[in-house]
Amino acid sequence: MHIHILGICGTFMGSLALLAKAFGLRVSGCDANVYPPMSTQLQQAGIDLIEGYDPSQLSPTPDVVVIGNALSRGNPLVEAVLNQNLPYTSGPAFLAQHLLPARWVLAVAGTHGKTTTSSMLAWLLQAAGLKPGFLIGGVPQNFGCSAQLGKSPFFVLEADEYDSAFFDKRSKFIHYRPRTAILGNLEFDHADIFPDLAAIEQQFHHLVRTIAGNGRIIYPKTDAALTRVLEKGCWSETDTTCEGGRWQARLRKDDGSCFEVWLDGKPQGTLEWTCSGQHNVANALAALAAAEHVGVSPAQGIAALGEFVGVKRRMEKIAELRGISLYDDFAHHPSAIASTLDGLRKRIGKVPLIAIIEPRSNSMKLGAHQAGLPQSVSQADQVIWYAPGHLGWDISSVAAACSVPCTVARCTQAVIDQVIRHAKAGSHVVIMSNGSADGLHGKLAKALEELEDLP
């Protein structure tokens, strides 16, 4: 079978391409811009890449065209597919139809922490010798890749609630039919496709409806939105985490880098690891509970998480220059920003913490999270709001409402100037964006390296 993937350089579609190639299919694809690192991975795997969307690439005709959710009507290649009446499908539907049959799918859903929790879970199964497959929207550093086919029935999936394609507005996770499902948390997000939280809750309940009676749903008892989802109807086993749940943590260090794991009121072991923050403690409990469902004991799981390295772009320390620690983080929702900064603050103590935040997501651009931003940065000593493009609302109003000193920067050089002005040896600087921030990470590292001395 020959599949041609439109939008192949995205994280999900690129990972799908790699899995399809490993499965033995002929794979080609295109994107508006064919760019590394995904283009490099695809080319090394022997996948033919085409830049742009010229309809001529449909000759010779593929058996099926897989259309990414970034493409819409009016795209010349999409129009050609429809006009020629070629078979087409979405990425999630293709994955479910061709690569997931007969697999035990462990799906990780939620507003925050999907990538990290999926990475933890895949590593737990790998460390237990279960040789899982996985598709994750990031790069787990224990594996060094975002997807692998695996050599067992078990397949870990980051289960996104975003829509599947221009012709299928259901959430991606509706296609996956998991036997084990983590519902990590639920807040309003994706304001470009969901009008309110109730609409997202409805999609999550559609997911719940696809899980078998002998499957298992793992969720934190303290999450009101998920409680409402399950109250709509639940036909599967449930397992609970966090306060009031079967799986609980007792912190030995306030930053979450060391805690005891308890199950049904009994201690299972102590986890000391490189991660920090209450959000990662919650992620770990969910991953342990999911792994236990497929036979990994709590003791095995705790030992494996002690060797969990983390995920690229999730509080990843990318440099230490002139005594300044520089981090890259993907957080782009007020709750994620707040929990990440809180974890870092508790780890580093009272030394200076500078947060650089790019409000780049579609929800941010629409102003959906504007009200929650000032409080989300309260643990920082200095905040730089990086807003080079038009947001549709005034970022200065957020800066003015913050309880900590804030500035607004419209270009990367302005950010660098502010960091050099405020940073000193021992400072920690975290760049928070779900994009490349116009290469800010490398530019700032270079500027610090070339600095003769800090002011």
Automatic annotation (TrEMBL):
Catalysed reactions listed for this entry: UDP-N-acetyl-alpha-D-muramate + L-alanyl-gamma-D-glutamyl-meso-2,6-diaminopimelate + ATP = UDP-N-acetyl-alpha-D-muramoyl-L-alanyl-gamma-D-glutamyl-meso-2,6-diaminopimelate + ADP + phosphate + H(+)
What is its EC class? ligase
Q: What does this protein do?
A: Reutilizes the intact tripeptide L-alanyl-gamma-D-glutamyl-meso-diaminopimelate by linking it to UDP-N-acetylmuramate.
Give the Mur ligase C-terminal domain ranges.
313-435
Gene Ontology BP term (one): cell division
> Gene that codes for this?
mpl
For this entry, the protein name equals: UDP-N-acetylmuramate--L-alanyl-gamma-D-glutamyl-meso-2,6-diaminoheptandioate ligase
Organism from which the protein derives: Ventosimonas gracilis
- Entry's EC annotation: 6.3.2.45
UniProt keywords (A-Z) are:
ATP-binding, Cell cycle, Cell division, Cell shape, Cell wall biogenesis/degradation, Ligase, Magnesium, Nucleotide-binding, Peptidoglycan synthesis
- Keyword check for Nucleotide-binding, yes or no: yes
Q: Return the Pfam families for the record.
A: Mur_ligase, Mur_ligase_C, Mur_ligase_M
The metabolic or biological pathway listed in the UniProt record of this protein is: Cell wall biogenesis; peptidoglycan recycling
Domain Mur ligase N-terminal catalytic, which positions? 2-99
Task: Give GO terms: molecular function aspect only.
Answer: ATP binding; UDP-N-acetylmuramate-L-alanyl-gamma-D-glutamyl-meso-2,6-diaminoheptanedioate ligase activity
Question: What does this protein need as cofactor?
Answer: Mg(2+)
Which InterPro entries did the record assign?
Answer: Mpl, Mur-like_cat_sf, Mur_ligase_C, Mur_ligase_C_dom_sf, Mur_ligase_cen, Mur_ligase_N, MurCDEF_pg_biosynth
The family database entries (Gene3D superfamilies) matched by this protein are listed as: Mur ligase, C-terminal domain (3.90.190.20), Mur-like, catalytic domain (3.40.1190.10), NAD(P)-binding Rossmann-like Domain (3.40.50.720)
Which residues make up the binding site for ATP?
110-116
